[in-house]
Known about the structure:
Layout: E1 2-6, H1 13-24, E2 28-32, E3 38-40, E4 47-50, E5 53-54, E6 60-63, H2 70-82, E7 86-87, H3 91-98, H4 100-109, E8 117-119, H5 126-132, E9 138-142, E10 151-154, H6 157-169, E11 174-178, E12 186-193, E13 196-204, E14 219-222, H7 227-240, E15 244-252, E16 255-262, H8 268-274, H9 278-289
Helix pairs in contact: 1-9, 2-3
Amino acid sequence: MKIAVLSTNRELYSTRRLIEAGEERGHEMLVINHKRCYMNITSHNPSIHLRGESITGVDAVIPRIGASVSFYGTAVVRQFEMMGVYSVNESVAITRSRDKLRALQLLSRKGVGLPVTGFANYADDTDDLLQMTGGAPVVIKLLEGTQGVGVVLAETKKAASSVIEAFRGLNANVMVQEFISEAGGADIRCFVVGDKVVAAMKRQGKEGEFRSNLHRGGSASLIKITPEERSTAVRSARVMGLNVAGVDLLRSNHGPVVMEVNSSPGLEGIENATSKDVAGMIIAFIEKNARKGRTRTRGRG
């Protein structure tokens, strides 16, 4: 098969590992910078061009699209879908997961465990918003934030009001969530491929830090997850429509709660912590499922 990884940097660990895993299994692998692609949007012969040439003969794509270029990146994925190319994660599923509010609403509708979450448009709704989410301490998040950026722990009502007012003064959309103190600054990243959790790791924030992101100095270690946590992760990926996902869970007093469903989960942390060939599992999934025109949305959405 000819498999393309949509990535802006072929030297990134995740991109390199996918290329290595595909070549080890006998596939022709290439890296396509989706930011530099341009598209011919036409009814009968849609196409994608790069450096003056049309991209042809691709059997499947693996989107590795950063949050900052979600709009253009998903447009490129959608164009591949219109051309009949199989995408391991489809454009509409990526878009769903990138919109944090929409993702939480979809998960809530399907009964997936979540932290109590509030969302408001006006700063003068703050008192009722904080009461709705159980009162301080609360976690305040920018909807557009990634990798722990734009996430603040407000330990008092006064601090929470000040942070919300500041964000709203910048016309930023914010969510307010209950603080799961019993998690102890740790979360669980479940890596889902297809309908299985193929690897899981515990991410622990550094001392004094409530965010556990590895980019913020957190550490990763192997963890054994419960059947309920496994089921929650798989259900969450399915609700988003993602075949490959990183589902972040917290262990709360009322069971696992989902913090985020990531459509482009990094491979370095999970492979190093678990010693599993996750990249190879993604390629194996594509081998089993990739067919021309096999997209649920067929470019819609």
